[in-house]
Amino acid sequence: MEESLRGMAQVVDLLERHECAWEDKEYREALRQASKKPCYVTPESKVITLRQMVARDLGFQVAVNHPRLCHLCLTDDSAPQKNRGTPPVPKPDAQGQFPRRPSKIPARAVDDEAAARLRRVIYELDRVLDPA
């Protein structure tokens, strides 16, 4: 409970500082420039981010030796990818999707003898369980 209040207090403090700074023209211009800057995802940025995450989670600076890091460093990404956020959900008829099942089940030939036996069993069970 105390941690959630502390986090909420930090958020409120950040919003108040932002509102105060927003009155400054240079601050607004700096934010606009930062929002227009393209954000690219490269192997180097992935390695840096992973190292920062490990250092933050473990609480100290460490050398990260992981197979994924080796793969990222050895991968030849000649063109950096632009980070476009979470991709949208694919359309139901997109290529590679399984077709939807038909709403109606195709009619099958009914076995009259089996149906008659089932009706007889149900009738007998009704008579035994409810002798009224």
Can you tag this structure with a few keywords?
single chain; mainly alpha; 132 residues; elongated; two-stranded antiparallel ribbon
Q: Your description of this structure?
A:
This protein is mainly alpha-helical and 132 residues long. Among the domains are: 1-37; 38-82, no CATH class. Helices cover 57% and strands 3% of the residues. A two-stranded antiparallel sheet has the order 1-2. The protein starts with a helix and ends with a helix. The relative contact order is 0.06. The mean pLDDT is 72.
Summarize the structure.
Helices cover 57% and strands 3% of the residues. By secondary structure, it is mostly helical.
Number of strands: 2
Percentage of residues in helical conformation: 55-70%
Name the average pLDDT. Answer: 72
Separation, N- and C-terminal Cα atoms: 62 Å
Write the layout of secondary structure elements.
Blueprint: H1 2-22, H2 25-36, E1 40-41, H3 43-58, H4 67-74, E2 81-82, H5 112-129
Antiparallel strand pairs: 1-2
